[in-house]
Amino acid sequence: MGKTKALIITDGSETINSIANSIKDALKEVKVKIVDAKNFEGNEILPVDYFILGCEKPSPSSFAYLEELLSHINLVSRKCCIFSVNENSISYLKGIAADCEAEIKEPYLIEKGNFDKSKIKNWI
């Protein structure tokens, strides 16, 4: 069996990208790719075991394609993790991920300045 693969899709904001890089660093045994949603190509999500979504504010314009894709694809065998610094963004991300039927894990709300790297592995 191959190495577990994860894809982190972000809104490209500095805060979210910083958190995404910390997530990648914490998941040493996982092959992780980080992609800005504006550069996301739909086929990138197919070979992964986990996809992780993060945005700073709800409904960023860069997520338009991702929203459309997730409403038309079945990812029932995948797990979806969601993180943000904003409760409304968590709700937004849960909403766009719901249609694809992936197993949505408990979201990780990171309060500004209160990001605990040691909790990442347990969260994933």
In short:
The protein has 124 residues and is α/β, with parallel strands linked by helices. It has helices spanning 14-26, 64-70, 87-98, 120-123, and strands at 5-10, 31-36, 50-54, 79-84, 103-104, 108-109. The protein contains four helices and six strands.
Number of helices: 4
Terminal CA distance reads 20 Å
Q: Tell the overall outline.
A: globular
What's the total number of strands?
A: 6
State the CATH superfamily name: Flavodoxin domain
Helical/strand content category: alpha/beta
Do you know the CATH architecture?
3-Layer(aba) Sandwich
CATH class: Alpha Beta
User: Strand share of the residues?
Assistant: 15-25%
According to CATH, what is the topology? Answer: Rossmann fold
Radius of gyration: 13 Å
Q: Averaged pLDDT, please?
A: 91
Tell me roughly what share of residues is in helical segments: 25-40%
Question: What's the topology here?
Answer:
Blueprint: E1 5-10, H1 14-26, E2 31-36, E3 50-54, H2 64-70, E4 79-84, H3 87-98, E5 103-104, E6 108-109, H4 120-123
Parallel strand pairs: 1-2, 1-3, 3-4, 4-5, 4-6
What does this structure look like?
It is a single chain. By secondary structure, this protein is α/β, with parallel strands linked by helices. The chain has one domain: Rossmann fold (3-Layer(aba) Sandwich). Helices cover 29% and strands 22% of the residues. The protein contains four helices and six strands, in the order E-H-E-E-H-E-H-E-E-H. Strands 1, 2, 3, 4, 5 and 6 form a six-stranded parallel beta sheet that branches. It is globular. It starts with a strand and ends with a helix. The mean pLDDT is 91.
